[in-house]
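Exercise: predict the fold of this chain.
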Amino acid sequence: MSLRSRIVACERCPRLRAHCRQVAEVKRRAYRDETYWGRPVPSFGRLDAGLWVIGLAPGAHGANRTGRIFTGDSSGDWLYRALYEHGFANQPEATGRHDGLRLEDARVTGAARCAPPDNKPTRAELEACRPYLVEELAGARRIRVAIALGKIGFDTFVKAWGEAGRPRFDPRPKFGHGTEARCGRVALLASYHPSRQNTQTGRLTRAMFHNVFVRARTMLDG
């Protein structure tokens, strides 16, 4: 069974699986006529991409509905607009799995593959999910830049990178918006997560967010 198939069929975390199924059954009124995905959400983009973006987890009415990471909610609107404007996607909108969106030398994934209640996966749930990212990173031979959206995505990437048999970051980097860390030829960039609690409060502005992608593009082009 392929890695993607194993992720979609995963039942490692009963609390998360129950939550995703309940959300998919009850739905949000605006999407009541849609069939929710309701399963773990695989990564999006080629494994051999130069840029990797690591977020937190699928949104309950975003990726848990559409079946594609960061698709169908406001966080995805921010992310895919940035990817498009900096040459990593063929269009700025992400509405569903069949909307024609393609990534260019980029891959998007999450620290958790199931939508967690209150957007808060437990430590045990993150630990149970991380081996999927480890397996992906072990095969990511062309990765040169990773952008971590939020501290959980940042910490998960650092752990998974070492567990994938890659040289470990030394010293261990600390999360902060706009920070950079290097491990050999791979750079890890950090951004606040484009969640509404950050974007609507002004903690994360569009300029701040896009500057991280400008830096990624410069590194890849250089």
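Check your answer against the key: Residues 123-138 form the longest helix (16 residues).
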